[in-house]
Amino acid sequence: IKELQKQKYKVAKVFVTFETEEDQRNALAALTVGRIDARMNNTGKIPASAVFRGEVLKVGEPTESNAVRWMDLGASPARRIIPRVINLILTVGIIALCGFIVARTRANPKLGPSAAGPLVTIFNSTVPVLLKILMIFEKHATEGEFQASLYQKITFFRWVNTGKRRK
Fold first, then answer.
1. Total-model pTM
2. For 132-150, how does the pLDDT look when each residue is reduced to its tens digit (9 = 90+)?
3. What are the contacts of 102-111 at 24+ separation with CB within 8 A?
């Protein structure tokens, strides 16, 4: 432990626990600053208590500890953004492909809407599973962020896939 204490670590986030709820509220009231001041590191515009080693502390009440995705906290911005963009492109591609298949099925005189309906149902049940697999590669700090991203992708897909198409 003494050897590890001598090493310097790049910190992604620090979690502090308090003895009482009142202590937590007092700390949050004393250290909370605006987003712009925290992002721009405006040390002159905020109380000195919110500055630590020349850096403005971005303090906020965290989610519950069991909702934090601990292994994803230290992911760099590139490691978080690039997989999200790739997944977004793949999601849009999947939506376009499914829409194309359903449109072609509806336009087919032999199949028509009677085959397109079950096809929409099949896509609505299989594509979310595929999107969940793609989400493995995304890094999110909390489980809530992860679930919101998955929900947005599935909702967008189902909204486009199920929507009424006009000729």
1. 0.65
2. 999 988 998 888 889 999 9
3. 102/161, 102/165, 103/165, 106/165
